[in-house]
Amino acid sequence: MEEDQALWILRGSLASPREEWRLRAGRAHYSLRRGVLQQRAKSRSIDPAIRVQCEVLRDAAKQKLARFAPAHAQVRVQALVRHRRVGDQCNPFGGFWGWVQVPGQPKSYFGGNQQVLKFRRGPWESWPVPDRAELNVNTNLPLIFSPYCGTLLHEALGHAMEADYLKTSPFEAGFGKRWSCEELTVMDRPDLADLPGSMATDDCGQPASATTMLHRGFLVGDLGWGRGVLRRGTYRDLPMVRATNFVIKAGSADPSHWISNLPNSYYVSWIRTGAWQMGTSSISVVTGPIYELRKGQVVAAAPLSRLTFDMTLMLKRLTAVGSDFEIDPLVHWCMKRNQAVPISMASPSLLLEGL
């Protein structure tokens, strides 16, 4: 396997930015000897064409942002060009993502490429700016998750269904059983084009294939060894079973009805990070802006909240799936044993009923 990766980072303001480059390239060869996986890795200079491609993305990001934000706005932008090759097959990705913040306003998150700049959009854009450090959420009340909250189920299903974790997962003996509502279908989709986790073959040369983990609420598949889902954080790392593009299919519900009709609820704009406590049924997430609602009226808001769920109970509480499917424009980095791989999240809004 060969790798070339160029990452450009901008921090500060558009008027006086601080820029940083992180480049890596190398080749790895691994073999199985007496039942032990061994690997030889060697670094080399990056292909100059990869850095040039990243410079093109950098310039596109700067140009597009200048149209939307004043020069004094604070920004953090990353542009990534990543090529992985096994034999004659190359899995390329290129894109930029980040946030921009005008003083007195919350951060606006975006992602894109040379042709497109896309922001996260939602009803929170017309709601009051969060005025608390953190919101103490009563998780027994209904919770509405926007399309940018795929991390919730990625932690509940994605990691727990990986072959090397399945034996410690609450789902090990649950195949063929119903775990959630009829409209919930969850998939791993490396076959989708131009996304961070897209690939024709994995990092060991196996053909990558789509996997349905949950179909209409029923547990039907896992991320097994033979599905072409072996990925490495860098060319120096040994391959592991990893998620690619995490997709929750659209349902039929209109999320605006949940917002306006529920007497008491919380609305989560997006999820920043999440974690599954391996070997248990517990997951935790840190949200982005979160709002306490009473029939669509905001009564409290905060930039974040920390939420913990029993993931099996959470799946049972998930009773409605929105029709507002979105691919999150941000690149997400999935961590496992200190290896980070880029993935994409795609989801509609989700409703967890109250207890």
Distance between the first and last residues' Cα? 50 Å
Structural class: mainly beta
Beta-strand percent range: 35-45%
**Unreliable runs:** none
Q: How much helical structure, as a percent, in the residues?
A: 10-25%
**Mean pLDDT figure:** 93
Number of H- or I-type helical stretches:
4
Write a structural description.
The chain is mostly beta strands and 355 residues long. It has two domains: 118 residues, no CATH class; 210 residues, no CATH class. A seven-stranded antiparallel β-sheet has the order 3-2-1-4-5-6-7, covered by helices on one side. Strands 9, 10, 11, 14, 22, 23 and 24 form a seven-stranded mixed β-sheet that branches. A hairpin with a 2-residue loop joins strand 18 and strand 19. The longest helix is centred in the first third of the chain and has 21 residues. The mean pLDDT is 93.
Q: What's the structural blueprint in terms of helices and strands?
A:
Blueprint: E1 2-13, E2 17-33, E3 36-43, H1 48-68, E4 74-86, E5 89-101, E6 108-112, E7 117-119, E8 143-145, H2 151-158, E9 186-188, E10 211-215, E11 218-219, E12 230-231, E13 240-241, E14 245-248, H3 255-261, E15 265-268, E16 271-276, E17 282-287, E18 290-294, E19 297-302, E20 306-310, H4 311-317, E21 318-321, E22 326-327, E23 332-336, E24 339-347, E25 350-352
Parallel strand pairs: 8-15, 14-24
Antiparallel strand pairs: 1-2, 1-4, 2-3, 4-5, 5-6, 6-7, 8-25, 9-10, 9-14, 10-11, 12-13, 15-18, 16-17, 17-20, 18-19, 21-25, 22-24, 23-24
